[in-house]
Amino acid sequence: ATRGLHRPIMSLHERSLSVLACRYVDEVIIGAPWEVSKDMITTFNISLVVHGTTAENTDFQKEQSNPYAVPISLGIFQILDSPLDITTTTIIRRIVSNHEAYQLADLLGVDNGAAVGKFVEMPTMAAP
């Protein structure tokens, strides 16, 4: 299984643009294979391969199916601490919670905008 519990929420192009918006990203390889090979590292002149600590699928840490085996052996792999627990599952939970808050506010006859702020606390990101 090379994907998380759910299919991606954004399209391939939306995900690519989101990643390209990160200041530390130089290039996005669309259609890249799951396993990072020596040929791929050489062809694209990859200097660093990273993986966040928050992931729905940590199968890569198993010896038999480690897609990062080559970057690890070359010393160019790093695990990056994820500041927030944002996964497909947490996003879906927030959507469901917001929906339930809107439904409850509607039943109570309360202004939905004000009610959601009371029922659902959204996480904030720290400035870089």
Automatic annotation (TrEMBL):
One GO CC term, this protein: cytoplasm
Keywords: Lipid biosynthesis, Lipid metabolism, Nucleotidyltransferase, Phospholipid biosynthesis, Phospholipid metabolism, Transferase
Top EC group: transferase
InterPro entries according to UniProt: Cyt_trans-like (IPR004821), Ect1/PCYT2 (IPR044608), Rossmann-like_a/b/a_fold (IPR014729)
UniProt KW Transferase keyword: yes
EC numbers for this chain: 2.7.7.14
Highest taxon of source: Eukaryota
Domain annotation Cytidyltransferase-like: ranges: 7-93
GO terms for biological process, alphabetical: phosphatidylethanolamine biosynthetic process
Molecular function as annotated in GO: ethanolamine-phosphate cytidylyltransferase activity
Annotated pathway: Lipid metabolism; Phospholipid metabolism; phosphatidylethanolamine biosynthesis; phosphatidylethanolamine from ethanolamine: step 2/3
Annotated SUPFAM superfamilies: Nucleotidylyl transferase
Family: Belongs to the cytidylyltransferase family.
Name of this protein: ethanolamine-phosphate cytidylyltransferase
Provenance organism: Trifolium pratense
Origin organism lineage: Eukaryota, Viridiplantae, Streptophyta, Embryophyta, Tracheophyta
